[in-house]
Amino acid sequence: MAKHTAFMAAATAALLVGGVSGLAAGKAPAAKPVVKHKVVTVTLGGWAAYAGNNVKQMNNFLKPFKKEYPWIHVQYQPVAGNYETVLKTEYVAGDAADVVALNNGGQASPFIDAGDVIPLNSYLAASHESVNDFYQGSSSLFTYQNKLYAIPRDQDVLALFYNKTMFAKAGIKSPPTTWAQLQTDAKILTDAKAHIYGIGIDPSESYWGEFVLQAGGTIFNATKHEMTLNTKAALKGFSYYVNLYRKGYAAQPSTVGATWSGESFGIGRVAMTIEGGWLISSMAADWPSIKYGVAVLPKGPVNNDTLSFPVGWAVSKTAPDKQAAWDLVNYMTDQGQPAWDAGTEALPTRPVNTSIAYFKNHPLWKPFLASLSVARAWTFPNGFDQYASTTLDNQTLLAVEGQESPAAALKHLQSAGQQVFQSQGQ
Amino acid sequence: MNIEAKSASVDGGRGLKPRPGRRKFSRTRLNDLFAGYGFTLPSAFVLFIFTLGPALVAFYLSFFSWSLLNHMHFVGLANFWGILHYSVFWIAVRNSVLFACVVVPVQTVIALALAVLLNQNMPARGFFRLAFYFPSISSSAVITIIFMWMFNQLGLVNSFLSWLGISGPDWLGSPHFALPTIMILNIWTTAGTFMIIFLAGLQAIPVSYIEAAAVDGATGWHTFRRITLPLLRTTLFFIVVMGVIGTLQMFDQSFIMSGGSGGPLHSTTTVVLLIYNFIFAYGNVGYGAAATVLWFIFILGATLATNKWLGQTVDY
């Protein structure tokens, strides 16, 4: 029976595709043009993704989609300012966009937990795609209880930026590839009297989490129901990071008059920094005279895993036409992904898109692409907003400034996190 | 006055006792009433919708547990209990009170000194009045960002200090100096506004009093202490009350300087910033609302105390 229906569907599709060839370039889902579609409007939310004229560029990006789905009218409503805050109030008021962007760092989980966005597995399957088409480091962020709540549209990962001029002056030929080398190089490059430091890594967990991973530790257990900062591996990773500061080789941004480590690097106050690909466009725009290179992160005792910061498109529960909303999401994250990556200077979430022309023409992205397979999503479960935004930063700062030992800081972080889990259990 | 007297006399002519209730609703009076309320209606409407309404909702929400996204449920006084046992709330209270205790006296004294100075006949008086007032009319966000550049570790202030042979601190990055930096910023911006108000107060003091005192042989300080200052009492009251309320509600400068976190190490967390974070960042609306109610009571108390101290009218 099932076979028969499938055959019928395939036959119909074959007939129809012949009739409408030329409508869609290449990838027309089978039965689409059959029905005379009612014109629908899909609203598209998200923060300003492009620099400059955001709406115009977004409309340009969506032109091919409009050609392929002429009955879906997309209305782009970018949110300026504090995106998640605005999105929360929009869900309260019931006027959130049909398709919304969900961010990393624990910003997606409140919306997923509250059921404001719907699981997309069935839509994904209907479009003959699977979760395995994506890097695990990006899809895992939006996966809750084996359901995928947003399709990763792009990501960024941490890599090592190094100042070529400063390296040459210090006689260092190539960027460090191990923890030991990183520390030695940072020591050589430091000239504290001149306010020049070997490395700048923001005192924040989104910048030191990878050291824990590289030592074989994790922040949470696999199901994200327990803190795992009380392990020896976690302490090893965190201590290595803290020691770069305690030995005087690393500088906080504020120490060198910057607001973030990318800026410390840009103004030539630190010879290395660990940042995401976003620094590439900042360097070009703000500090074009600095000669720099990018390398994959130095290897720790166990691996050279890095953190990834994916963003996804999700469909709101309130969307009146979910299929149309899905068609838009699917276009943007599949056919549209190469154009999106090139336009926004972000990394692809599908391995298949790593070979696109844009990245071939921009070799600085090579180490980032090479890191994608070992990248793990930076995220927090629901309820960790305060923990992520203040508790982690405070303990990091205390450790980095030597007011607390790394072990004491991790102990505090472990118990504070466990408390959050316990309070949710009630 | 005139109209009321007239109507009373008409009633009196008929030998009736004037009844205040009737008098109140005489036609002219009614017209006045309509005109008065009519003209205040737009402002009153705005006040109710955007100020009193949300304030009442805050009271209501303080009894509920709500993350903005989930279903709210009634929890009684649990939010108040929770917030009073939450250490960061007390850090925020301490920061806010400390901020008010330093900023209000200093900015009042500076504003008064500037006003007295610029009330003299001196050259380029207009220029200086404008110069001192200018920070007050500029955007607080822009000024905060300029201050962040000036006060950064390798910025203008520390360059100046090192020229004097002093090694300047990390103003914004150190928990000890972050709040004082905001204090300096706040004093600098607000002193100008209050200077203008003091100037208005000073110019309302009749010159004849000052001249009489001079004839009696009073020195400049005596005149200031015995005549100017007492006659400025109402102005002073206004400025202290506005200063106390304004400083206890400080939010924007902390928010921008710390990037919203109130750091480093909660040193710039003010009560209002904490309230904002509770509601919009931490998904704990009930705590934020409960803190709002507690802080409302505190500010009300502070204002009443100021009123008791400075609010009496001056008798001469």
Q: Count of helical segments of chain A? A: 18
Text of the CATH class of the largest domain in chain A: Alpha Beta
Number of individual domains of chain B: 2
Task: Assign the CATH superfamily of the largest domain in chain A.
Answer: Periplasmic binding protein-like II
Q: Strand fraction band of chain B?
A: under 5%
- CATH topology group of the largest domain in chain A: D-Maltodextrin-Binding Protein, domain 2
Task: Kindly identify the CATH topology of the largest domain in chain B.
Answer: MetI-like fold
Q: In whole angstroms, how far apart are the ends of chain B?
A: 27 Å
User: Helical region count of chain B?
Assistant: 15
Main interface by residue count: A-B, 28 and 26 residues
**Proper CATH architecture of the largest domain in chain A:** 3-Layer(aba) Sandwich
Q: How would you sum up the major sheet of chain B? A: 2 strands, antiparallel
Helix content of chain A: 40-55%
Main-sheet strand order of chain B equals 1-2
Give the total of domains of chain A: 2
Q: What kind of assembly state do the chains in view correspond to?
A: heterodimer
In total, the number of strands of chain A is 13
Distance between the termini of chain A: 49 Å
Strand order of the largest sheet of chain A: 8-9-7-10
Which residue ranges of chain B are poorly predicted, with pLDDT under 50 across at least 5 consecutive positions?
Answer: 1-16
